[in-house]
Amino acid sequence: MSMLYLSEIMITNPQIESFEELVEVVRERARSGRERFFRMDVKPDYRDTPENWEDRLEAAFS
After folding, report:
1. To which H or E segment does residue 28 belong?
2. Distances (CA, A) of 44 to 5, 34, 60
3. What Å distances lie between residue 4 and 23, 41, 57, CA to CA?
4. Would you state the pLDDT for residue 35?
5. pLDDT score of 19
6. Per-residue pLDDT, 1
7. Distance between CA atoms of residues 45 and 39, nearest Å
8. Helix crossing, 19-32 with 53-61: angle to 10°?
9. CA 3 to CA 46: how far, in whole Å?
10. Cα diameter, the chain
11. CB of 48 within 8 A of CB of 16?
């Protein structure tokens, strides 16, 4: 079982410039089925990161 880390997504996708773009990348990775678990090990530091960012990313992965 493989774990997907939020920090890995952010490091390997430097072109992401907003929280909404990050949500889309998380959703795409979830659809690929390569990872079974998702860990939010860092807080995204985008201008549009909402207060409920963890819930939003978890929903995108689910």
Report:
1. helix 19-32
2. 12, 22, 15
3. 14, 10, 12
4. 87
5. 98
6. 59
7. 16
8. 30
9. 23
10. 33
11. no
Domain coordinates in residue numbering, the chain: 3-61
For the record, the structure tokens of 56 come out as: 């939003």
d(CA 1, CA 44): 25
Task: Report yes or no: 57 and 32 within 8 Å, Cβ to Cβ.
Answer: no
Side chain identity at 58, as an amino acid letter? E
Residue 46 sits at the vertex; the CA angle it makes with 7 and 28, to the nearest 5 degrees, is 55
3-state SS class at 39: strand
* Mean pLDDT (10-residue bins), the chain, 62 residues: 91 97 96 92 96 97 94
Q: Kindly report the CA angle at 52 between 30 and 54, in degrees rounded to 5? A: 35
Q: Helices (H), strands (E): how many in the chain? A: 3, 2
